[in-house]
Structures are given as structure tokens and as C-alpha cells.
Amino acid sequence: MKSYWMKSDGKSAEIELRDIDQLKPGNGQVLLRVRASGLNRGEFILGHGLHKAGDAKPIGMDAAGEIVACGEGVQNFKIGDRIFGRCTGAFSEFALMDQREVMLMPTSLTAEQAAAIPLTFHVVFDMVVIQGHLKADQWVFIPGVSSGVGVSALLMAKALGAKVIGTSGSQEKLDRLAALGLDLGICTRAPDFHDQVMQATGGKGVDLVINTVGGSVFAECIRSMAFQGRLAMVGYVDGVLNAEIDLAALHAKRLTLFGVSNKMRSPLQRSESVPAFREKILPLIAEGRIIPLVDQVFPFEKLIEAKAAMESNRHLGKIVLSGAV
After folding, report:
1. Distance from CA of residue 6 to its chain's centroid?
2. What are phi and psi of 246, to 5 degrees?
3. Containing H/E element for 103?
4. In angstroms, rounded to a whole number, what is the distance separating the alpha carbons of residues 164 and 218?
5. Secondary structure (3-state) at 177
6. Is a pLDDT exceeding 50 seen at residue 104?
7. Mean pLDDT on 306-318
């Protein structure tokens, strides 16, 4: 079977398409024929620590397809089921998925749409629901709203009845996101959004911040938060890993700051929120209240081109790789 692997020397990485032995499901695993897989920026960034120097490993973390074999102990899923979820080696003809991660694909979704969901939407679910405790009619602020995580957060927040403000350096992208429910788009990459955020919220500030940008906007985000506001730190595309914290604001406004990362979590810890995701979010997807935004679909043999398209930052939504023919 064909499978993309990535090898790193600690400074650079090389992606190669290999022919490897057919996989067999172990206890609690299903084997799926991959029909589509989503690209995620983080797995290609060496600084994120997912690739150790000298290591070579299969890549791809989001897969959608159908089950072709089940290992011992698999319950509630069977051969032929259309599924999607997080796994290792999604950029392959076949992939193994832990049954704890498996989600049945709603009939309303294409494989490409389903492949745009798992990692990004689970991260967003963690930020918005599990740790963010978002309620209807609350305000969400997303600096970098046109990113993959940003768009997914917008879609989920709107489906849950929230109001959303976002920033982007592209007015064109903000205009497109307005059609998806963005209440206020601010065209900027600088930390200069406080006044517009406060005006939009009637001087109250926002209840939940999803910081996909990094340290360059952190202090301005704190300034823009409401009493008992929450801030999720999920990305640092600006490369700024340090920021000043206004302790007086943190104290007086009873703010909550939390990180969102799976880097140090065990497979069991990562899967703990999947049942709640199935219960709370999958119905919204099945009903069409959340429709994953797929920007481009590349054929399986064009992974390098798909990665370049993602890194060009011209897309809106997810870049997806179709399954090998």
C-alpha cells in the first residue's frame, strides 16, 4: 500500500511516498480505506515537536473512508461503515483508527468534508465547549478568524448561538466569512482592535477569545475581555511565544486563561471528549447547521502541492487530499 512518510534531521524535513506492507487492525482498531484526508499545518512544523531528528514516520492525522476490517474488541462499528476521525498515517491508502476516535459519517457529508473535521473541530470543541463554556448570545473574538481553526471556531460558535468578531489581514476573506455568520470582521494583523471590539459589545468586552495568532496580540486580547472572560491559547503563527500579562486585569476581571494542545496528552486523554462531541456536535453537522468549509481538494499524488497551497495562506477553510485511486 502507498503511504506518505516524513523524515527530519531536526532542521529540515523530507516527504516521500513509500510502498509499505498492508496494515492489519489490532485489538480495538478498525482498518479504513482512506477516501480523503485533511491537512493540518502543525504536523509539518518541526518546532512543534511532532518529528524528532532522525525519525521517519507516516503522516496525516485526519481521515475519512469506510471500514474494511475490524480488530478484536471492536464494538458498535462494522465493515462497510462510512467513518471519519483522528488517526496516524492518514495520507495513505489505508489507515488504522482506534475505535475510541471513530465517528460515523453523516449522510449529508462528502468524504472530503468529513476529512476537514476531526483534528480541527475537536480542538475547537475543546476551546469552545469543554474549557470555554460558551453559551448562546455570548461574544466570541477570534484573531486570525480566516485560519483553519478560526473558520471552524466561527462555524461552531454560530451554531451554538454565539456572536462572533474576527480579524484577518484579508478583507476579501472577511467578506466571505460574513456570509457564514461573522458578525464583525476587522481587517488588521496588528494589535489595534480593542476599540472596535468594545464598541461592538456595548463596552462589555468579549466572553471568549480564541487566540490563533500568538503573543503579538495577546495583551490586546486581554484588554478586550469581559468580566469572567476566557481566553484559549491555541496558536502562534506570528512566532511570538512571549507576551506581557496584565495581572490587574486578570485579577479584577476574574479572567481564565487556558492552553489547547494535544502534544502532551495520551491517546486516552485525547479521546475522552469524543463521546461528548458525538452527542453535541455531530447532530449539528448532520442537520447542516455546521458545514465544514473545504477550500481545495488535491489528488493523492499531489501532497507536496497541497502543502504548498496551505503554506501560501491564500486559502479559506481546509485543504484536503483525496484518496489514492
Report:
1. 21
2. -80, 95
3. strand 103-104
4. 18
5. helix
6. yes
7. 92
Residue linked to cell 490586546: 220
- Residue 48 above 70 pLDDT? no
Average pLDDT over the chain, rounded to an integer = 94
Grid cell in block for residue 156: 461552531
The answer as to whether 92 is a domain residue is yes
pLDDT above 90: percentage of residues in the chain: 89
Say if residue 44 is in the same domain as residue 104.
yes
**Do 235 and 211 form a contact (C-beta atoms < 8 A)?**
yes
The rounded radius of gyration (Å) of the Cα atoms in the chain is: 20
Asked if pLDDT for residue 138 goes beyond 70, the answer is yes
CATH code for the domain of 102: 3.90.180.10
C-alpha cell recorded at residue 21: 506492507
Q: Cell numbers at residue 305, please?
A: 502541492
Q: Backbone dihedral region of 235: left (phi > 0), alpha (psi from -120 to 50 degrees) or beta?
A: beta
Amino acid 164 reads: V
**C-alpha grid cell, residue 69:** 476490517
DSSP state of 244: -
Amino acid residing at 298: F
Please give the grid coordinates belonging to residue 193.
482592535
Same domain, 228 and 242: yes
